[in-house]
Amino acid sequence: MIDLKKHLNSSQFLAATTIDGPVLVIAGAGSGKTRVIEYRVLNLVQNGVEPASILLLTFTRNASRVMLSRAAAHDPRCAAVEGGTFHSFAYKALKHYGKALGFTNSFSILDEGDAIDAVGKCSGNVNISERDRKFLKKNTIRSIISMSINKHSSMEDIIEKEYPHLAEYSEYIKNVKSKYVKYKQEKNYLDYDDMLVYLKKLLEDDAIRKAVASKYKYIMVDEYQDTNRLQGDISYLLAKAHKNIMVVGDDAQSIYGFRGATHKNIMDFPAMFPGCVIIKLEENYRSTQPILDAANSVLSEMASKYDKRLISGLNHKGARPQMWFFGDTYEEAGWIADKMIELKTSGIPLDRQCVLFRSSYISIALQAELNKRGISYNLMGGMRFYESAHVKDLVAHLKIMANPKDELSWHRALELIEGIGPKTSGKILKDISAGDSAKYEKGFKYSHGIQRFKLLIETLSEEKAGVGEKFEAAFDYYSPLMKTKFDDWNTRVNDLETLKKIAYRYDSLQDLLSDFAIELPDSHGGHQHSEHKKQPTLSTIHSAKGMEWEAVFLIGLIDGVFPVSFSLGDDESIEEERRLFYVGLTRAKDHLFITFHHENNRGQMNQFNKISRFIDNSSIMSRLEQKLLGDV
Q: Taking a C-beta distance cutoff of 8 angstroms, is the pair 526, 378 a contact?
């Protein structure tokens, strides 16, 4: 047998060798939870537990595959342990026991794309105006339906809290859901949410639950902080009989509430399983102690938590994290680009550097700066600003002014007007070229739209108007069109607000459009940083969870940006934002730079930002080295 003490620290060893009864492992950031699961599986098997009686539930197939393959490298018998996602386990259970719920073995699983298409098909059978039908996207309706199931909330509550701008369509969305449910029943379909709903129903049957418990005597659940209410209930039911369940997670990294995950699952686990053993993994093998000191300060501010203090297991101390203050976002972007090159020169390749932010629009100024300097990058958690449909829509109007022969932009701009499609836009464009467009201003259903468009073109043609003023005019014109085109317009508007600030810094419209349009050859988005291309990563914090970099820039620490504005006034949402901040801090290994900029330029007015409440306290500020541009 392998001597586990040679491979694990004392807390990891305790977690890996506690076999019977409920166990809650609170795995701090970078504390080696994967290693714990690997060696606990090995320990169970080497202590005589039948591999097939062990069930490991994870959030991705790859996660279970990695952990079990590592265990199997020590003992091949571990390969027989059953591992997979909640959904893959649900599928297997429904195939075996589904007849109890009236299912035949011929049911089909709808992947998310198929589910969205099915919702779209059903929405066509619900009475609503054609304009509203085009406005309400099928993927949005599907998200609302799914969220109501995963959050165990009514459709009305989800719409009121998450989609308030769609409140007037509440009855329509509920009718679509009814049609969708009926459609799935008729066609013998199950979507991902159904799989969990029906797995829970199966496990609520005493006989089935007893049969499942007799087969799976040891349950393990990874990333328990990310489970939704259904998954928490399923975990409880799986272990209700024998109580042999270990869940591993970090309450401080519960950041996916918007997907339906609930922080309460991990906090309520001891109440669900009285007498459970709580084991804390606090030794961090990723970050230096000064970085962890900052993270510990954030931990101390959390309202609902398991007390813990991260201690670095690294041999070198490292530098204190730096808090940088800038005049505006452009100064901030310029400094970050300079610092990236400086770090590269000092031996930290660009692919080991990352810029993290709460929301993608915060990175727009930096994206533009990196493009100017010829620094390619990988973007995770969002689309490059100049690739987004709403940005391309607005910019098309400016492109027309820069190049009146830009046929593609003319078509894009004209087809935004209600009632104008490709055929009509081609006809109008031909007449515009011939100087015969006035006839479209009266007598057509789209004449009012043409009149508005003509006024915009006249405004944009004024020689005295600056680039920022032209952008603002196009923005004002496009805003009502955007609100009819996109049912998530409220999240897109931040991109355009940010671009408006950038536009005011340009003297030439042609230069602005060139900087927007020129994409570097290697500058394509990806889901992980590409080592062979040596590119830095720009990422939302949500997309960076589980990853690490030598140097991290955590930008935009502005109240209303981080924490995000729609979380203000809601204690639970603020706490999730605080946990997100903690996740951002703990991605850094050796160098951590936190940034804030003072000025928020809106057109010709300067407003001053307020520093994030997560930074604005002595507990964390004392852990940071404060810097102003110009400091040596």
A: yes
> Beta-carbon neighbour count of residue 2 at 10 Å?
12
Question: What is the pLDDT confidence band of residue 383, given thresholds at 50, 70 and 90?
Answer: low
Under 8 Å between Cβ of 110 and 190: yes
Do residues 222 and 256 lie in contact, with contact meaning Cβ atoms separated by under 8 Å?
A: no
Q: Residue type for 170, please?
A: S
Query: Coil, helix or strand for 81?
Result: coil
Residue (of 367, 371, 379) closest to 521 by Cα position: 371
Task: Give the phi and the psi of residue 97 in degrees, each rounded to 5.
Answer: -115, 5
Evaluate whether 478 touches 417 at the Cβ level (below 8 Å).
no
Q: What sign has the CA pseudo-torsion 567, 573, 575, 580?
A: negative
Given a contact cutoff of 8 angstroms between Cβ atoms, the answer to whether 254 and 261 are in contact is yes
Identify whether 563 is preceded by a cis peptide bond (ω within 30 of 0).
yes
CB-based burial of residue 548 (10 Å sphere; 0-12 exposed, 13-18 middle, 19+ buried)? middle
Amino acid identity of residue 297, one-letter, is: S
Angle CA 237–241–244, to nearest 5: 90
C-alpha distances (whole Å) from 118 to each of 125, 159, 217 are 11, 21, 38
3-state secondary structure of 220: strand
pLDDT at position 435: 82
Between strands 353-357 and 23-27, the pairing is unpaired
Question: From CA 626, how far away is CA 540, in angstroms rounded?
Answer: 24
Mean pLDDT of the 371-376 span:
90
- CA distance linking residue 249 with residue 37, whole number of Å: 11
- Cβ contact 357:365 at 8 Å: no
Position with higher pLDDT, 268 vs 514: 268
Cα distance between residue 117 and residue 547, in whole Å: 33
Whether 336 and 553 have beta carbons less than 8 Å apart is answered as yes
The residue among 548, 614, 554, 581 whose CA lies nearest residue 31 is: 548
Comparing C-alpha atoms, which of 593, 615, 512 is closest to residue 549? 593
Distance (Å, rounded) from C-alpha 441 to C-alpha 449? 8
Q: Give the whole-angstrom CA distance, residue 452 versus residue 559.
A: 37
DSSP per position, 376-398: --EEESS--GGGSHHHHHHHHHH
Q: Which long-range contacts (CB under 8 A, 24 or more apart) does 183-187 make?
A: 183/118, 183/121, 183/122, 184/110, 184/118, 187/108
CA distance 332 to 324: 9
Residue whose entry in the numeric block shows the structure tokens 């201003």 = 441
pLDDT by residue (tens digit) across 401-433?
Answer: 888 888 888 999 999 999 998 899 989 998 888
Cβ atoms of 428 and 454 closer than 8 Å? no
Residue among 231, 201, 206 nearest 219 (CA): 231
**Residue 600 confidence (pLDDT):** 66
Sign of the CA dihedral running 351, 357, 361, 364: negative
Closest C-alpha to 510, from 384, 397, 399: 399
Q: Enumerate residues 6+ apart whose C-beta is below 8 A from 127.
A: none
